[in-house]
Amino acid sequence: MADEVTMDTLFGNFGVEIKSASVVENSRVAVEWSDGSATSLYPMLMLRDCCPCEKCFNPVVNSRLILFEHLLESSCSVSQLSYETDCVNIEWLDGHQSVYSTEWLYRRRLEREAIEKRLESVYTAVVDTPWTGSTPSEIIKSAKYDEILSDPQKVVEFTECMIKDGVFVIREAPDRHCLVEFLKTIGAKHQGTHYGDSEWVIKNIPTSKDLPNSSKKLELHIDMPYLAKPQQLQLLHCLIQSEDGGENKLSDALKAALILKEKKPDYYRLLSTVEVDFQFIKKYKENNTGSSVTEPLSYKKILKLDSLLFVEAWFEAFRYYWKILESNAIFIKSQPGDILAFNNGRVMHAREAFNSQQARQLEGVYAEWDYLLSAWRMAKVKLSKQVANGHC
């Protein structure tokens, strides 16, 4: 049976019992705990809306069945309440009966401290942190491909490093298509784009006019800024590396933004509030007639500004930010079998030029960030089960 990852499964057994439960103010239910925690208050409307019974919630697909429009005042008022040490039983005025377990109620306490702990455990136990090191070895963690796929602890380490640092290197990957397989195995899923539905290839083609497939230098950038929601997780698998050049340059946009905010707050305010549009302009055929738009493949940046002085100020601010990005960049040269994983929405990447007569080939794939977070949560659950079963 597949592991179900919900808010409940991310918490351990609290070992608490219900000391008492009662209706207060005709609109709330109060629960007193055996561990001395503050008495918890729950709105009746919330309890009725979140009733976990099978008439209100489908446990097979984890989907609510109750319609909010049916929650009338009479259906959200308590007729009778009783409790045991492990549950609260409520009969509502419309006759519906609900049972709330101790664990269910304790995990949904509404005191500020409990909410903060819950949010930290479910969403923000690991937060993005600006780079503090100055060399690749100080910033980038790594692990072997097979280790990550076979050990949930390694999956936790990989995903937490991605969340915290935005970059990770996976070593000793197979010399074949493996990125989609890797994501699937850890519980994530790749996302197709206009570059392809699966892995896409970047290889040196001396006659190519497409910059990625040339040997020319690429400056710091993120991929697909023209999309409404650019794919945040990117994996680059090195299959063939050039002998000379071809290093990847990486820079932490988060760190650079914080430096900019401290040194030039006006520049920071300008860059963080002025909207910039990016467009992907591609040659395409229309209605299969052979006629086409004649604009070449390019990226176009359009500032939504109508003031000459404003445009000048924006570019001055951007140039200052760019210098911060460049001065804090690090260089790494992937070797065959290395997978460079990074947060495309945070870690700007570039490539140094290399000998056009030398072979160089990478495969890449994108995935939504939510899948990385899902993989992290599932690995945490698997790890906690191993610990509970004495396997760790």
List the helices and strands and how they pair.
Layout: E1 18-24, E2 28-33, E3 40-43, H1 44-49, E4 57-58, E5 63-64, E6 78-84, E7 87-92, E8 97-101, H2 102-107, H3 112-122, H4 136-139, E9 141-144, H5 145-150, H6 152-165, E10 167-171, H7 179-186, E11 200-203, E12 218-221, E13 233-240, E14 248-252, H8 253-263, H9 265-273, E15 276-281, E16 298-303, H10 308-327, E17 330-332, E18 339-343, E19 347-351, E20 361-367, H11 369-388
Parallel strand pairs: 9-10
Antiparallel strand pairs: 1-2, 2-3, 4-5, 6-7, 7-8, 10-18, 11-20, 12-19, 13-18, 13-20, 14-17, 14-19, 15-16
Helix pairs in contact: 6-11, 8-9, 8-10, 9-10
| CATH H-level homologous superfamily name of the largest domain | Clavaminate synthase-like
Question: How much beta, percentage-wise?
Answer: 25-35%
Number of helices: 11
- Spans of at least 5 consecutive residues whose pLDDT stays below 50 are 289-303
Number of domains: 2
Protein name: BBOX1
Pfam families: GBBH-like_N, TauD
GO biological process, one term: carnitine biosynthetic process
Family: Belongs to the gamma-BBH/TMLD family.
